């Protein structure tokens, strides 16, 4: 038996996608008392939600049948299209009369197209990508960037409170995701720079705990440095935000930049590093594994110097 949430007069909300970010986000909704029905392609990810009082649906169709507002937090555009049945007859039946709140990171043009398809089918659409990784998701301290019709955005905005410290309207469909890309440009290059700084300090035989104390005592201190510097120092790449996702984000940003002729020199360098970390086998490890790509470059440079050093008698 699945657990029912809410009374017949209480609106029930849906949540589809319980991955690294989606699961803690949905848990915050459930623990705040939001009547919730959830679904995930891997069923065991839904068990903590069941324990928190949510109903676990047998299918995505069950979620949309019971919930008027459905939060969607899926891996990428292809998975989102597949789960929603976009492009087929099931899509219209699924979203008609529903508010689809897309919280994943996609290309702005994709979001505009999805919004148009949802509206054509008789539904409504809000994009709400979030800034933050797993720990802020667990703490309910994400920042959502909202794009869509103003009235629908204002309807959805208070529903995000258990998941997000702030929910900021950014304009029409696509604008929330453009804002997310701008924020991610800063984040992705910052993590790569921080990894390089830790690498530099370690190779200069500096004490990394002292390095952490200096950074966190000055104007560079942030939630990012407080979480990532200890991870980098310990080579602890427990996933908060995956390296493959960080690399995919750099490509989304680059595509959006190239479309309007914007140069992104720092982004391009960091994108190469994230790609190298993925090739080293770190795709599903934390994005701070970019450190290993920097270390590999140092080792290659060291080997090259050794190979070209003159022989001595």
Q: Helices, strands, pairings?
A:
Blueprint: E1 13-16, H1 22-31, E2 36-39, H2 47-51, E3 55-56, H3 60-66, E4 69-72, H4 77-84, H5 89-95, E5 99-102, H6 108-120, E6 124-127, E7 130-131, H7 134-139, E8 142-148, H8 150-156, E9 164-171, H9 175-203, H10 208-217, H11 223-234, H12 243-259, H13 265-282, H14 290-308
Parallel strand pairs: 1-2, 1-4, 2-3, 4-5, 5-6, 8-9
Antiparallel strand pairs: 6-8, 7-8
Helix pairs in contact: 9-11, 9-12, 9-13, 9-14, 10-11, 12-13, 13-14
What is the number of E strands? 9
Number of helices: 14
Helical content class: 40-55%
Derived structural class: alpha/beta
Largest sheet: 9 strands, mixed
User: How much beta, percentage-wise?
Assistant: 5-15%
N-end to C-end Cα span: 81 Å
Radius of gyration: 22 Å
Write structural notes for this entry.
Strands 1, 2, 3, 4, 5, 6, 7, 8 and 9 form a nine-stranded mixed β-sheet that branches. This protein is elongated. The chain is α/β, with parallel strands linked by helices. The chain contains 14 helices and nine strands. Helix content is 54%, strand content 12%. The longest helix has 29 residues, at 175-203.
């Amino acid at each position: 038996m699945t657990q029912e949430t809410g009374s017949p007069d209480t609106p029930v909300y849906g949540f589809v996608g319980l991955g690294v970010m989606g699961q803690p986000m949905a848990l915050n909704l459930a623990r705040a008392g939001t009547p919730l029905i959830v679904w995930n392609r891997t069923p065991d990810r839904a068990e903590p939600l069941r324990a928190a009082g949510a109903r676990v649906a047998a299918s995505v169709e069950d979620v949309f049948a019971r919930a008027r507002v459905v939060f969607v937090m899926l891996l990428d555009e292809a998975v989102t299209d597949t789960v929603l049945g976009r492009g087929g007859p099931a899509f219209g039946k699924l979203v008609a009369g529903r508010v689809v709140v897309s919280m994943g990171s996609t290309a702005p043009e994709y979001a505009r197209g999805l919004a148009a398809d949802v509206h054509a089918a008789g539904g409504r659409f809000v994009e709400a990508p979030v800034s933050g990784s797993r720990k802020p998701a667990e703490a309910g301290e994400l920042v959502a960037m909202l794009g869509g019709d103003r009235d629908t955005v204002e309807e959805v905005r208070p529903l995000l409170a258990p998941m997000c410290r702030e929910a900021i309207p950014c304009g029409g469909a696509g604008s929330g995701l453009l804002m997310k890309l701008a924020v991610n440009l800063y984040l992705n290059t910052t993590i790569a720079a921080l990894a390089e700084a830790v690498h530099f300090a370690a190779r200069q035989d500096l004490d990394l705990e002292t390095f952490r104390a200096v950074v966190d005592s000055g104007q560079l201190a942030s939630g990012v440095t407080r979480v990532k510097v200890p991870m980098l120092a310990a080579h602890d790449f427990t996933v908060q935000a995956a390296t493959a996702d960080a690399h995919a984000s750099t490509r989304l940003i680059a595509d959006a930049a190239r479309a309007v002729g914007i140069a992104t020199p720092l982004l391009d360098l960091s994108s190469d590093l994230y790609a190298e970390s993925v090739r080293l086998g770190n795709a599903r490890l934390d994005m701070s594994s970019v450190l290993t790509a920097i270390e590999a470059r140092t080792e290659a440079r060291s080997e090259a110097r050794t190979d070209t050093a003159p022989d001595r008698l």
